[in-house]
Specification:
33% of the residues lie in helices and 18% in strands. The radius of gyration is 18 Å and the shape is globular. Helix 2 packs across helix 3. Strand 7 and strand 8 form a beta hairpin. It is α/β, with parallel strands linked by helices. It starts with 5 loop residues before the first strand and ends in a 5-residue tail after the last helix. The strands form two sheets. An eight-stranded mixed beta sheet has the order 1-2-4-3-5-6-9-10, sandwiched between helices. Strands 7-8 form a two-stranded antiparallel ribbon. It has one domain: Alpha/Beta hydrolase fold, catalytic domain (Rossmann fold), CATH 3.40.50. It is built from nine helices and ten strands.
Length: 287
């Protein structure tokens, strides 16, 4: 059963407008942070299922994505994203479990390092500090592959199917409307700011995940909160070697492999993903 969330705005770093979907519930707070090129709607099924189990779920559009504002200075580096999430959590007024996929996961890692007082648990969805360059380049290639947009939603659906060959193509294209903007000329463009690619991913050299290996490793070493890695067994972004490197930094790390999932793990196997998150969030302390 789908539960309709409440949509509202929060202020990110320097007052940048952020848009969230919120499923209020009396239980612990879980903030869901999507990957690069996605939107808060990537979590709609997970949000409904979490709140049905009593979890207060919040899904946020990262800066430059979805309905959140575009950075006027083109700053999409990890430190700016970290500042946005810290500000958002402060406005929500509660500590939270952060569930971050890809770019959202790396941001969550930096938030947990900077503000351990507002992060209770951490779930990383198919992302570690040492990602596979080929998989990362495939993501960047897809995000930059249609600078002129698409003539219609069917053309966009074909592009998604080619990018995600392991996933069956949906019968309807209606779901794509949340991830695309229709311009005045009638063409459809992805719902993110192209400026984030004017420099290496992140918008500024020092904010690029691929050039922040040392900083991300340091953040991982500092983790004290319970941490779960959900690895997509079909992923080309997170390898077993990458997982073992991350485990060497985070000795208390738990790892679960989602057998039918690739890098887009939450959508690839939503049932397994949601069960794992619920079990982790609702378990007794120190269990």
């Amino acid at each position: 059963m789908s539960i309709t969330p409440q949509t509202r705005q929060l202020a990110g770093l320097d007052g940048l407008q952020l848009v969230i979907d919120e499923w209020p519930a009396p239980g612990p707070l879980v903030m869901l942070l999507h990957g690069g090129g996605q939107t808060r709607h990537s979590w709609k099924d997970a949000g409904s299922r979490l709140t049905a189990a009593g979890v207060h779920a919040v899904s946020l559009d990262l800066r430059g994505h979805g309905d959140s504002a575009w950075a006027p200075d083109g700053n999409y580096g990890l430190p700016a994203l970290r500042g946005d999430i810290i500000n958002a959590l402060e406005q929500l007024g509660r500590s939270a479990t952060l569930v971050g996929a890809s770019l959202g996961g790396l941001t969550s890692l930096l938030v947990a390092q900077a503000r351990p007082d507002i992060v209770e648990r951490l779930v990383l969805v198919d992302v570690v500090t040492r990602i596979e360059p080929a998989g990362s380049e495939r993501i960047r290639g897809f995000m930059q592959s249609a600078p002129e947009g698409f003539a219609d939603l069917d053309e966009a659906a074909e592009a998604v199917s080619a990018y995600l060959p392991h996933r069956a193509r949906p019968r309807s294209t209606d779901g794509l409307r949340k991830n695309l903007r229709q311009h005045e000329d009638g063409r459809w463009h992805w719902h993110w700011d192209p400026a984030m690619f004017q420099l290496p991913q992140g918008g500024s050299p020092e904010g690029n995940p691929l050039t922040m290996q040392a900083e991300l490793d340091d953040a991982a070493r500092s983790l004290q909160v319970p941490t779960l890695l959900l690895q997509g067994a079909l992923s080309d972004v997170v390898s077993d070697e990458g997982v073992e490197h991350f485990r060497s930094l985070v000795p208390h790390l738990r790892v679960e492999r989602l057998a039918d999932a690739a890098h887009t793990a939450a959508a690839d196997d939503n049932d397994a993903f949601t069960r794992s998150v619920l079990d982790f969030v609702l378990e007794a302390p120190n269990s």
